[in-house]
Design brief:
- The complex is a heterodimer of chains A (about 400) and B (about 600).
- Chain A has about 400 residues and is of the alpha/beta class.
- Chain A has 2 domains: about 250 residues, TIM Barrel (Alpha-Beta Barrel); about 70 residues, Arc Repressor Mutant, subunit A, CATH 1.10.10.920.
- Chain A is about 40% helix and about 20% strand.
- In chain A, the strands form 4 sheets. In chain A, strands 9-10-8-7-6-5-4-1-11 form a 9-stranded mixed beta sheet, sandwiched between helices. A 3-stranded antiparallel beta sheet of chain A has the order 12-13-14, with no helix packed on it.
- In chain A, a hairpin with a 5-residue loop joins strand 16 and strand 17.
- The relative contact order of chain A is 0.12.
- Chain B has about 600 residues and is an alpha+beta fold.
- Chain B is built from 14 helices and 33 strands.
- In chain B, the strands form 7 sheets. In chain B, strands 11-10-16-7-8-15-12-13 form an 8-stranded antiparallel beta sheet. A 6-stranded mixed beta sheet of chain B has the order 2-3-1-4-5-6, sandwiched between helices.
- In chain B, a hairpin with a 3-residue loop joins strand 7 and strand 8.
- About 5% of the residues of chain B have low confidence.
- Classes of the chains: A alpha/beta (about 400), B alpha+beta (about 600).
- Chains A and B meet through helix 8, strand 12, helix 11 and helix 16 of A and helix 13 of B.
Chain lengths: ~400, ~600
């Protein structure tokens, strides 16, 4: 195994209530399980470290959810302690935690900072009360402003804010206003996500039932293009389809996914990618806790919580490298890196797809013909590009 | 012996309870034990049971000891319940001496019942009217009895009133059959003449024909011959339906039964043909034989090109049991390799489509149905075309003739106006009206078949709140001012979307088709113009805007698999579309022609 640095994803599936658009692995009203769950997380980390047989290098940690900010800071600290003890955690590691405005306090944020968290990601979503109501969020924008201010006071120098656009009935002007207001909070990083109506969510039901207008893709495209231009003009780097950063603040954890590099997933329903396998953990927190009560050793990267481990073929790995790598709008897929990783030149593996996508104006080589990247149009039609690389 | 035989059939409109009544008769005569009694024994195919209609005829023998103490052999010959199968109905009726006319006590007489009644009267059958479903809250048996009296002259108070469902008065029906229907005439010593009223294909016994022996007798060892097809054969088996096929080795004048012919092709033993003895043949066949002619044509294509051979096999197998189905290979520039199929009517087409999908598990695309046109060319020749794509260049054409039908619509008088308006808008010509009862009218029209096959029946039903019924027969080929309506997608003509329409309607139909296609064809990477062209002119145009956004925003917690699955699903969906030039066209689009009539016609 080459000496690569791993990323570590820790899933926290608890929420006070579920948002109207969310179909991710989250649960409301299970907060009483948090102490046992944190215990289980630490055991699973221990299992992974043991199975690896040596302290694996880890350079990013990401607490995602769910609502990780529902964890007491002390619990986050315990998990980070376990990581520091059992893994070779880099001194400059990026340690992110997702937080909902409205679940944080100044004291709590100070404690998180002291525990080692150095990057926060706030789910702000919108500055407009109508949008927030539609999304079923339980915070208002003033709360978001206050949370950001507290985070700065607590010493956080790396903040991401999540926004969602393309909501049913959301006009372009309201989106523009949200972006302008949020820029006033001076974050280092912005994630702007187009709303996806996930089947089975309350929001999708409302749209299917005709209670809400269906999101307008053309308008969403206009919102995207406007925001991208606005941010670039303001000195932001547009480095991934949905992500913009101040110079030097690209999210290292997410770059790991997009570069198709290994990460370990810990927690209920967490996904991992290591030693050529994609792993999935058992979904519910109850089952997760149960599986880690008397942990049995399993070969790396599997743990007692793993319910699925699929070894990728070379074709799979190449396809996923393209699918993920092309999301990086600046970096793209480097032909040399591809050839080095797979022992075959990029253009030989995809002799038809690449020229066709280039001709369709969705992909382009950079001036030195070193990197393959999405064009401005291709960024909005990514699925057309990614599909072409599926085996 | 023939004195104790009664051959009869049941004439009824769909849903008026024919099968339920048949079931009760079988039960009462002990032909079938309660244990064997699955509902509607006579309707064998699943599809029939679901649609509640009989697609194929069938027969069953019962034994009934009547009030006079004598035991009678009753042969019930079931008739197909749809107007597409009018010819089969006429042959089944020709095999009988009498018929029960079953009418729903809440619905009254319907057009199709009437049409079959006329057929029965033409065949000199004794008619026994029966009012069914008297148990329904909406039943109005007195009014319906009056309708029947007007129609048949049977005094209203003598008409049987039953509930087949509850079993009320069903015994009286059996008595009426024995007393009123005459026993079969026919000379047992004359040369053999047996009428084929149905058939099916059996993998071991070959084509099994269902026959009514009119004259003479047959033995299993005889060599027999079909008088129309000239096919000769030695029966593998002969017997009766009791109710399942039971070998008896012989059949004689007056009896109803089956002959397993050993023939391998249903087309050699068609309904209506006469079976005779090869050594001692009859001089003349039984009257009324007609070669069934397909009236409606459509292209049938496999969604996946590699299923072509499977589709051919399935069509061949269907044809074994369905002599009216015809097909030949056809190539479409848009849809690839497939078959041009001919059907008796829209219902027949639907049945075939469903059987291909359900029984053979095939994914198929069907093009909009067409009729067969006669095209007279400048060089004096006449060609017959059943696909709009085959229509020669306009400059070569002297005249196009299309099939016209005579149709009868039976409706409550309150819908007189809407029906009249609908039919005349479709180029129908009003030819007459009759009032069998004061509040019901039979309107007769002549109408091009092409207008009848596209959405006519559904429209008729919706305009009359479901009350109207319809019957039709072929009339003649007549010249019409017809043009080819072509559809160009992204500048290329798509053969499978072409239609032949009346010149006056080309504009509206073209417009509707274009807007329908605009809604059905998904947005592509580039703008796609859709044009309708008739007589060399673009008569309608719309643009499908280029797609702007199709990208997944987010990858939740490194869940690459989920993302990939979604992309794979999308890719599969794309595969199910047909690439025409650079444009992906979904299957529904090829049926859009069918739907253009729906809007404010």
């Amino acid at each position: 195994m080459p000496a690569v640095a791993y990323s570590l994803y820790i899933h926290v599936p608890f929420c006070r209530r579920r948002c109207a658009y969310c179909d991710f692995n989250t649960y409301a009203r299970l907060e009483h399980l948090i102490p046992a769950y944190v215990e289980a997380l630490r055991k699973e980390l221990g299992c992974l470290a043991k199975a690896a047989g040596r302290p694996l290098a880890v350079h990013t940690v990401y607490f995602g959810g769910g609502t990780p900010s529902l964890l007491p800071a002390a619990a986050v600290g315990q998990v980070l302690d376990t990581i520091a003890q059992r893994f070779a955690l880099a001194a400059d590691a990026e340690i992110s935690l997702e937080a909902n405005p409205g679940t944080v306090s100044l004291a709590g944020l100070r404690a998180l900072r002291a525990a080692g968290v150095n990057r926060l990601s706030f789910g702000v979503q919108s500055a407009h009360p109508a949008d927030l109501r539609l999304l079923g969020r339980d915070h208002d924008y003033p709360t978001a402003i206050r949370s950001v201010a507290w985070a700065r006071q607590a010493g956080f120098r790396n903040l991401n804010l999540d926004l969602i656009f393309g909501l049913p009935g959301q006009p372009l002007s309201r989106w523009q206003r949200t972006v302008e207001l949020v820029l006033g909070l001076a974050p280092e990083h912005l994630s702007l996500y187009a709303l996806t109506l996930e089947h089975g969510t309350p929001l999708a039901h409302q749209v299917e039932g005709g209670l809400l207008p269906a999101p307008d893709d053309d308008l969403a495209a206009a919102m995207y293009t406007w925001a991208d231009e606005r941010l670039r003009a303001g000195g932001w780097a547009s480095y991934e389809i949905s992500n913009w950063a101040r110079p030097g603040y690209a999210c290292r954890h997410n770059l790991q996914y997009w570069r198709n590099l290994p990460y370990l997933g810990v927690g209920a329903g967490a996904h991992g990618y290591a030693a050529g396998q994609r792993t999935v953990n058992v979904l519910t927190p109850q089952a997760y806790i149960r599986r880690l009560q008397r942990p049995q050793a399993r070969p790396f990267p599997r743990t007692p919580a793993t319910v699925q481990a699929r070894r990728l073929t070379v074709e799979d790995e190449m396809a996923e490298t393209m699918m993920m790598g092309l999301r990086l709008t600046e970096e793209g897929v480097r032909a040399a890196a591809f050839a080095e990783r797979f022992g075959r030149p990029l253009e030989e593996v995809y002799p038809a797809a690449i020229p066709r996508l280039v001709e369709q104006g969705l992909l382009a080589w950079d001036e030195n013909r070193e990197r393959l990247r999405l064009t401005a149009r291709g960024r909005l039609l990514g699925n057309w590009v990614f599909r072409a690389f599926l085996p | 012996m023939a004195e104790h035989i009664r051959n009869f059939s049941i004439i009824a409109h769909i849903d008026h309870g024919k099968s339920t009544l048949a079931d009760r008769l079988l039960q009462l005569t002990g032909t079938i034990s309660p244990r064997e009694m699955t509902e509607q024994v006579l309707d064998d195919m699943d599809l029939e049971r679901e649609k509640g209609v009989t697609i194929k005829a069938s027969a069953v023998q019962m034994h009934y000891t009547a009030a006079d103490g004598q035991t009678y052999e009753l042969n019930l010959i079931d008739t197909p319940g749809h107007v597409d199968f009018g010819y089969e109905v006429s042959r089944a009726l020709a095999a009988c001496e009498g018929a029960l006319l079953v009418v729903d006590a809440s619905q009254g007489v319907e057009a199709q019942t009437l049409a079959n009644l006329y057929l029965a009267l033409e065949n000199d059958l004794e008619i026994i009217p029966v009012i069914n479903k008297i148990d329904l809250p909406a039943a109005r048996p007195d009014e319906v009895a009056q309708e029947l009296e007007n129609l048949l002259g049977t005094p209203a108070d003598q008409i049987l009133r039953v509930s087949a469902k509850e079993g009320t008065h069903v015994e009286a029906v059996l008595e009426a059959i024995v007393q009123e229907i005459p026993p079969p005439r026919g000379d047992p010593d004359a040369p053999l003449r047996a009428l084929i009223f149905d058939s099916h294909y059996d993998a071991y016994k070959g084509v099994v024909v269902y026959v009514r022996v009119m004259d003479g007798r047959l033995q299993q060892g005889d060599t027999l011959r079909l008088m129309a097809s000239q096919a000769a054969f030695k029966p593998v088996e002969a017997g009766i339906f009791a109710p399942h096929m039971t070998p008896t080795g012989s059949l004689r004048a007056g009896e109803v039964g089956y002959i397993a012919t050993g023939l391998k092709d249903v087309r050699e033993a068609r309904v209506g043909d006469t079976v005779t003895n090869h050594q001692n043949p009859a001089d003349t066949p039984l009257p009324g034989y007609r070669h069934p002619k397909p009236m409606v044509f459509a292209g049938v294509y496999p969604v996946e090109g590699e299923d072509y051979q499977d589709l051919r096999d399935a069509l061949e197998k269907l044809q074994l049991n369905d002599a009216a189905l015809v097909f030949e290979p056809e190539t479409s520039q848009a849809l690839g390799f497939g078959f041009r199929c001919g059907f008796l009517g829209m219902f027949h087409m639907e049945i075939v489509q469903e059987r291909l999908e359900r029984e053979y598990g095939l994914d198929i695309v069907m093009t909009a149905p067409s009729v067969e046109y006669e095209v007279v060319l400048r060089d004096g020749t006449t060609v017959r075309i059943d696909s709009p794509a085959e229509l020669p260049d306009e400059a070569q054409i002297v005249e196009i003739r299309e099939p016209w039908m005579t149709i009868q619509i039976f409706t409550p008088t309150e819908f007189y106006g809407p029906v009249m308006e609908m039919v005349t808008k479709r180029r129908g010509i009003f030819t007459g009206q009759e009032y069998p009862t004061p509040d019901r009218v039979v309107l007769s029209f002549e109408l091009p078949l092409s207008e009848l096959i596209i959405d006519f029946f559904d429209q008729l039903k919706s305009r009359t709140r479901g009350y109207a019924s319809l019957d039709y027969q072929f009339a003649a080929y007549r010249p019409g001012d017809l043009v080819k309506l072509e559809i160009l997608v992204n500048g290329e003509p798509v053969d499978a979307l072409a239609a032949i329409v009346h010149r006056d309607e080309a504009y509206t139909k073209g417009q509707r088709l274009v807007s329908k296609l605009k809604a059905l064809i998904p947005r592509q990477l580039f703008a796609v113009p859709i044009q309708a062209v008739a007589g060399g002119r673009v008569i309608s145009r719309a643009n499908i805007k280029a797609l702007r956004k199709d990208v997944l925003a987010k990858c939740y917690g490194g869940d690459v698999t989920r993302k990939r699955k979604l992309l794979e699903k999308q890719k599969k969906g794309k595969k199910r579309m047909k690439m025409v030039g650079q444009v992906e066209i979904p299957q529904e689009a090829f049926l859009a022609v069918l739907q253009v009539g729906e809007e404010n016609r």
